[in-house]
Design goal:
single chain, 9 helices, Rossmann fold, alpha/beta, two-stranded antiparallel sheet
């Protein structure tokens, strides 16, 4: 989690910009429910969800980050918390929301809900009335709910969830996903009526000590005292239009 390691780093600044963009993305009230997805696996969507939740919690807001990637859950490993029980237990009627919330010791206003046991029917669970009811309960309890979901091209889960949230952030790994694949992912979300807040371009190369911002484009470069950063985990935030 880059934001807890060095709050002054270029990566932290990138996430501050992402936070600002998200808070200003909707007319009127800031979005309460934000879905993080990607076109393909291993593009950094879970890291982006975690750091976005942390950055929002730094404002003093009550934040919940939820692992709805029921294909390959990873949220618990980022926070080093158990995953014996999670959202799947709640959706199956075994327990309630309160019993599944886990705390993050560095930020008491940030709560974590892991995936729980991987089910045989993820899409059906996430598209159920129980999921809608649970999300409504989360919205009543928290200022912001950040949801990590599977890649949207590989599975229908993200498309299903995108119809239940205020908006979607599409995470793209720089140099890994082709423009055609990203366009396909974006179109797949738009086809179900998703509100795409924007795209996070992840793993931008850091080459020099420079900060640039213009309109909806921002990129971050830095050189620390020990030499150049290789850019792993940096974020470049672009609007979706």
């Amino acid at each position: 989690m880059a934001l807890t390691n060095d709050s002054r780093s270029p990566i932290a600044e990138a996430y501050r910009h992402l936070r600002t963009s998200l808070l200003l993305s909707s007319a009127g009230q800031p979005p309460k429910t934000i879905l993080m997805t990607s076109s393909q696996p291993s593009e950094g969507k879970t890291t982006t969800a975690v750091n976005t939740a942390i950055m929002l919690a730094h404002t003093g807001a009550d934040v919940l980050v939820v692992d709805c990637d029921l294909r390959r859950p990873r949220l618990h490993s980022h926070f080093n918390v158990p995953n014996a029980r999670g959202i799947t237990n709640c959706l199956s009627g075994e327990t309630d929301l309160d019993s599944l919330l886990q705390s993050y010791e560095r930020l008491p206003n940030l709560k974590i809900m892991t995936s729980g046991p991987v089910p045989p029917n993820p899409a059906e669970l996430l598209g159920s009335n129980e999921m809608r009811k649970l999300l409504s309960e989360m919205v009543e309890r928290f200022t912001h709910v950040i949801i990590d979901s599977p890649p949207c091209i590989s599975f229908t889960d993200a498309s299903i969830l995108s119809t239940m949230v205020d908006g979607v952030v599409l995470v793209v790994h720089s140099g890994r996903s082709s423009r055609a694949v990203v366009r396909r992912a974006k179109q797949q979300l738009l086809d179900v009526g998703a509100n795409i807040f924007g795209v996070v371009l992840n793993n931008v190369k850091l080459e020099a000590q420079e900060f640039y911002y213009a309109g909806y484009y921002s990129s971050y470069y830095a050189m620390d005292d020990e030499g150049p950063d290789n850019g792993a985990g940096a974020a470049d935030v672009r609007g979706s239009s």
